[in-house]
Design brief:
The complex is a heterodimer of chains A (about 300) and B (about 375). Helix content of chain A is about 50%, strand content about 10%. Chain A contains 9 helices and 9 strands. Chain A has a 7-stranded mixed β-sheet. In chain A, strands 8-9 form a two-stranded antiparallel sheet. In chain A, strand 1 and strand 2 form a beta hairpin. The two termini of chain A are about 25 Å apart. Chain B is of the alpha+beta class and about 375 residues long. In chain B, the strands form 2 sheets. A 4-stranded mixed β-sheet of chain B has the order 1-4-5-8. In chain B, strand 6 and strand 7 form a beta hairpin. Chain B is globular and about 70 Å long. Chains A and B meet through helix 5, strand 9, helix 6, helix 7 and helix 9 of A and helix 8, helix 9 and helix 11 of B.
Chain lengths: ~300, ~375
């Protein structure tokens, strides 16, 4: 038993954080440069757990969750989630980016996230994931509340490929939880930095317990969610009987941390936190988007 | 990262499980400290004789010298087997003993540690005073040095198990005119010494688990100071770091039993059909899982670097507040039975009322949030 990252994992995590700071900072989340996806592919980020036959790195979910939490911190493209799942579980993966459809129970219109330049769409279902062709009509792309993520609508299509493995939708839920943990971290750090800089009553506002305790609660929520994320990743790696519960718990706690930290960050920033120019709203809006990706139902959390 | 245990650890878990199933007492632990003392001492002795006391304490002082991971395995099995709370032995096992291991002289360790492990010596804490609660550095109880003795005057409060204790971890001012953190010492006080008066304080649950302690020219040997004269603050902080680090693992693993019992109760009385209750239970179950994950993460950190990470204070705060949420849920599921509570009852209402201590004792939730804000996030110190 060891729930601390090893040297290689820490190195991968640090390299990802460095690269993100230089090439994919949170501050530019609403307008990513062209060719970003090719760079992500070149780094192997959508293929961390994919088998070597799929051009993957064949690493474990624990390493991938650590790295995805770093990517989530800068509000990285949502397509990374669906692409990583497709590349891991799809025997003949499509060459490029795979967009993400929100789950619908029966054939009907689909909401597809991050469709720009995607080759296919992945949709999670209870106990499986489906991959099918994207209806490529760029003119129909619309923004979402999350300014970094576009969306499109398309009809339910016959699946080109179905992964009938319970672990495939769990993988998506785990990665979405990792993104949410990163999002919660980003809001926490933004709030704490601002509380050290902004002065009122001739001292930094973080001196006041009223503000300090808001920030402390943000740290608690982020630490709680991150710990459960690590446990869930290990449970999935070990194919434990209760992996589904642990991944659902990770998603539930990470979603809450991202949303509550997103809200608290705006409060700590005061008036500037309300503006379009400042960055806090980017975290809040991403948190709201993540709530809809593989949400953790009460039933999954109460299952025996 | 992995959550698997080695074959040796799994064998150890089986041994724990087998012994507990054969030996956990059938009778319940009496509630009040005075009634429970015989039970607590006998149970601790049984644990010691079977090799289950001080699993990760040094062999030289009566421990087993095993790893902290094995200690956690033992505590997990302990909770699963519904073994009794260690009660009056809590302070000796979880604060006094570990503090001595880190700071005490060879003579002090050789004398006290085996007695703690055998349940022969009961310890209590002497930190808080009427004027020094969250502001612990405001301690006024003083110890005047006379030859090779300390002469103690003052008072302590909220001292759990004072009535039944043999020894006290006493923080007092040994340098006249000193202020705040300077001039304090951490001493082993004989609770049977002349000049000590104990006034038990009744809690809102009807129990008298804690007390006020008065010192009137109490004489103890100067040699009872631990970690050197004037170093009391440093030694006291190492005591508190156990509370904020690994001292509450038993409570943390107990919560995973409690949530399963609550879910079973809600299924049995049908209240789980209420979506809000089902969702609250689901939420609590996720939070309890996260406590285990945080505990494992903290333990892994201890194994890797020898000490808990800075996030240990997060675990302490989150666990104490989660415990209160579990107790509130238990009371909610009990419905009108709450109204029948009478002093001395041993039920979920008792636990609920007692549970208020969790966010007050050992540093209030507000002090914990200050610590998290200042040490983890680097915000400016407000005190």
């Amino acid at each position: 038993m060891d729930l601390t990252p090893n040297g290689e994992q820490i190195a991968f995590q640090a390299a990802t954080a460095d690269w993100c700071r230089d090439h994919m900072p949170l501050e530019q989340a609403r307008a990513r440069p062209d060719g970003l996806w090719d760079q992500l592919e070149a780094m192997g980020l959508p293929r961390i757990t994919a088998p070597e036959a799929n051009g993957g790195l064949a690493l474990d979910h624990a390493t991938e969750a650590l790295v995805f939490a770093e990517l989530g911190r800068v509000l990285a493209p949502i397509g990374l989630l669906s692409s990583a799942v497709a590349n891991r579980w799809c025997a003949a993966p499509s060459g490029g980016k795979v967009a993400l459809a929100l789950t619908v129970d029966a054939p009907g219109p689909l909401r597809v996230l991050d469709p720009v330049d995607a080759a296919a769409v992945l949709m999670p279902q209870p106990g499986s994931v489906r991959v099918f062709a994207i209806s490529d009509r760029p003119a129909a792309h619309r923004p979402t509340i999350d300014l970094s993520t576009m969306q499109s609508r398309q009809e339910w299509a016959a699946a080109a490929w179905i992964a009938d493995d319970i672990r495939a939708p769990l993988h998506l839920q785990l990665l979405a939880a990792a993104f949410a943990v990163g999002c919660a971290d980003a809001a926490r750090d933004m709030a704490a930095e601002y509380a050290k800089l902004r002065e009122q009553f001739e001292r930094p506002i973080g001196w006041f317990q009223a503000l300090k305790h808001i920030c402390a609660d943000m740290a608690v929520r982020a630490a709680v969610a991150r710990s459960q994320l690590y446990y869930a990743a290990c449970a999935l790696d070990a194919n434990e009987a209760d992996a589904a519960f642990h991944v659902a718990a990770a998603k539930r706690l990470a979603d809450q941390a991202a949303l509550e930290n997103g809200r608290a960050n705006i409060q700590v920033h005061g008036g500037i936190g309300m503006t379009d120019e400042a960055h806090p709203h980017l975290c809040l809006k991403r948190a709201h988007l993540l709530q809809f990706i593989a949400p953790a139902a009460s039933a999954a959390l109460l299952a025996a | 990262m992995d959550i698997g245990f080695s074959p040796a650890e799994m064998r150890f878990r089986e041994e724990c499980c087998d012994w507990l199933h054969a030996n956990v007492p059938v009778e319940k632990r009496p509630l009040d400290a005075a009634d429970a003392i015989g039970f607590d001492k006998a149970w601790q002795r049984r644990l010691f004789d079977a090799g289950w006391a001080g699993i990760n304490w040094p062999v030289d002082y009566g421990g087993r010298g095993l790893s902290i991971v094995q200690q956690v395995i033992w505590l997990e099995e302990y909770a699963k087997a519904h073994a009794p709370w260690i009660g009056a032995n809590f302070v000796g096992i979880n604060h006094g003993g570990p503090t001595l291991i880190l700071n005490a002289s060879e003579e002090q360790k050789a004398y006290h540690l085996p007695r703690i492990l055998k349940g022969e010596a009961i310890w209590c804490q002497g930190f808080s005073e009427p004027g020094a609660g969250s502001d612990l550095a405001g301690i006024k109880t003083r110890g005047r040095i006379e030859g090779d003795e300390l002469v103690i005057n003052g008072s302590k409060i909220w001292t759990s198990f004072a009535q039944v204790a043999d020894w006290q971890e006493l923080v007092l001012r040994t340098e006249e005119g000193s202020r705040r953190h300077a001039g304090l010492s951490w001493a082993i006080c004989d609770m049977h010494a002349p000049g000590i008066t104990i006034r038990p304080i009744r809690k809102m649950s009807g129990l008298t688990e804690f007390a006020e302690v008065f010192y009137d020219d109490v004489r103890i040997p100067l040699a009872n100071v631990v970690g050197g004269l004037g170093n009391g603050w440093k030694v006291a902080m190492s005591t508190l770091s156990f509370e904020r680090g690994t001292g509450f693992i038993a409570d943390q693993v107990k919560q995973s039993q409690e949530i399963e019992e609550l879910i079973a109760a809600a299924r049995a009385n049908g209240m789980i059909k209420d979506d809000r209750i089902a969702d609250s239970l689901a939420q609590l179950r996720a939070e309890v899982a996260a406590v285990r994950a945080m505990t494992y993460r903290n333990i892994s950190q201890v194994v890797r670097s020898g000490q808990p990470g800075p996030e240990a204070s997060v675990i302490r705060l989150f666990t104490s507040e989660l415990g209160q949420r579990l107790e509130r849920m238990a009371v909610m599921l009990a419905g009108e039975d709450l109204l029948d509570f009478a002093y001395g009852d041993d039920n979920m209402v008792q636990d609920y009322l007692r549970g208020f201590a969790a966010t007050i004792a050992g540093g209030t939730a507000q002090i914990q949030r200050d610590i998290i804000g200042e040490r983890l996030l680097g915000l400016p110190k407000s005190r």
